[in-house]
From TrEMBL:
Source taxon at top rank: Bacteria
Recorded coiled-coil stretches: none
Main location: membrane
CDD domains on file: TM_PBP1_transp_AraH_like (cd06579)
Organism: Streptomyces thermolineatus
Transmembrane stretches, start-end: 56-72, 92-108, 115-132, 138-159, 166-185, 205-227, 248-266, 272-290, 319-339, 351-370, 377-396, 402-420
Function recorded in the entry: Part of the binding-protein-dependent transport system for D-xylose. Probably responsible for the translocation of the substrate across the membrane.
Keywords annotated in UniProt: Cell inner membrane, Cell membrane, Membrane, Sugar transport, Transmembrane, Transmembrane helix, Transport
Matches recorded under Pfam families: BPD_transp_2
Entry membrane topology: Multi-pass membrane protein
Hydrolase is among the record's keywords: no
Protein name: Xylose transport system permease protein XylH
Location(s) in or outside the cell: Cell membrane
Length: 431
């Protein structure tokens, strides 16, 4: 009688002792193990299979971003200068934080149209409390964020408990919170923030010591490597497929090249922006929440099938309310960073193309409009695409109307790719 196969340390299969199987039966082997045993050819074949089956991942947006950077650098050599890239890294933060919240809502297959208004209201609440009533900055900052959390939870309540469609609830919120923001600001319409204060420093402060940027890069690579090795050891102990050490080393090396190159560029100008550090920290923390916790699995399950999630014992209403609360919180945080960028709260906050850019960033970055697929990193990738287009066209002196048209075209392309990818995956039996 044969022995069951067991995963080896290199990710392969060995004939060690284990539960007996039926005489003459062929033990099932995970195809990912065969890929790793074949080496580079195996990975190449696997990549081709994933592309044919519509599992594109972040590839389209990465290719698009490289193409955009190449085009604009060819047309204007100032595009990839350290100054422009440093400014770009700060410009993506405000709207990017709002987009992170949108990712959570899109994972449910829903939409939140109120985030722009909520962001503007948060900035107005902070300015009135701090400048108008003398409340210290930190408490005023916290109250403004809690305001966004409460608004998001209210939207979630109407959606999850009352049954009002999310589109209608948040559309009403868009109008209501915009009006409340105007009332909060009063007849003056604009309140200037303290240029030397805490909030203003969120987007104006830089770690000028070169050790800060390089240190962050080193910490990121070390944390990624340690987490990958720990995950591989845990999966090996459980007898399930895991990444071999050589693959982890290659991934860590690629991350190191990217991280230290970014650190070098930032150090050529003012140094490491505080805003970028906070943005990356939020993305990593919420990515962990989505991918490594029971709560995150419930969010994905709900986005896949509401009825299946309900039958699995998931409290659908609670998850929905919490997701909209997260979206409201991130909208408020993003609004405060946007107010920090211009050192004021005014009647134009949250208006214009802010809402569309936040939604577009999440979708362009790879989050599906149909629910159940996406990551918080989508917000960063999508904002890099959008802000790169804005920055490149601004350097060339092209009108804002053209910027809107190009951004709209990029958004449409992202949705088309998402739709085609889903259809291909269904045809391949992988969706």
């Amino acid at each position: 009688m044969t022995k069951a196969s067991k995963v080896t340390e290199t990710g392969g299969v060995s004939k060690e002792s284990g539960p007996a199987v039926a005489l003459g039966a062929v033990p099932a082997v995970d195809p990912r193990l065969l890929v790793r045993e074949e080496g580079f050819k195996g990975y190449l074949d696997e990549f081709g299979r994933r592309m044919r089956s519509g599992e594109l991942g972040p590839l389209p947006v990465v290719v698009g971003l490289l193409l955009i950077w190449t085009i604009f650098q060819t047309m204007d050599s100032a595009f990839l200068t350290p100054e422009n890239l440093s400014n770009l890294s700060v410009d993506v933060v405000g709207t990017g934080l709002i987009a992170v919240g949108i990712v959570f809502v899109l994972l449910l297959g829903e939409i939140d149209l109120s985030v722009g208004s909520v962001s503007g209201l948060a900035g107005a609440v902070f300015a009135v409390l701090n400048i108008g009533h003398g409340v210290p900055e930190v408490p005023a900052f916290a109250l403004a964020i809690l305001c966004g959390t409460a608004i998001g939870a209210l939207h979630g309540f109407f959606f999850a408990r009352i049954g009002v469609p999310a589109f209608v609830v948040t559309l009403a919120g868009l109008l209501f919170w915009s009006g409340l923001m105007l009332e909060v600001l009063g007849s003056n319409g604009t309140i200037n923030l303290d240029d030397e204060g805490f909030v203003a420093g969120l987007t104006s402060y830089y770690f000028t010591d070169i050790a800060a940027a390089y240190g962050l890069a080193a910490v990121a690579v070390a944390a990624f490597t340690a987490a990958s090795l720990l995950d591989a050891r845990r999966r090996r102990a459980a007898g399930v497929p895991f990444r071999p050490t050589t693959e982890i080393a290659l991934r860590a090396g690629a991350l190191a090249v990217l991280a230290f190159a970014a650190a070098w560029v930032l150090n050529q100008y003012k140094g490491l922006p505080l805003a970028l550090v906070i943005f990356l920290a939020v993305i990593v923390a919420l990515d962990f929440l989505l991918r490594r916790t029971a709560y995150g699995r419930k969010v994905f399950a709900l986005g896949g099938s509401v009825e299946a999630a309900r039958r699995a014992g998931i409290n659908v209403a609670r998850i929905r309310i919490s997701v909209f609360a997260i979206a409201g919180t991130m909208a408020a945080v993003g609004g405060l960073f946007l107010a920090s960028r211009i050192a004021s709260a005014n009647q134009g906050a949250g208006a214009g193309n802010l809402l569309m850019n936040a939604i577009a960033a999440a979708v362009i970055g790879g989050t599906s409009l149909f629910g159940g697929r996406g990551r918080t990193w989508s917000a960063l990738l999508g904002m890099l695409v959008i802000q790169s287009v804005v920055s490149g066209l601004a350097l060339m002196g092209i009108a804002a109307g053209i910027q809107y048209m190009i951004t709209g075209g990029v958004l449409l392309a992202a949705v088309v790719i998402d739709s085609v990818s889903r259809k291909t995956q269904k045809a391949a039996g992988r969706a």
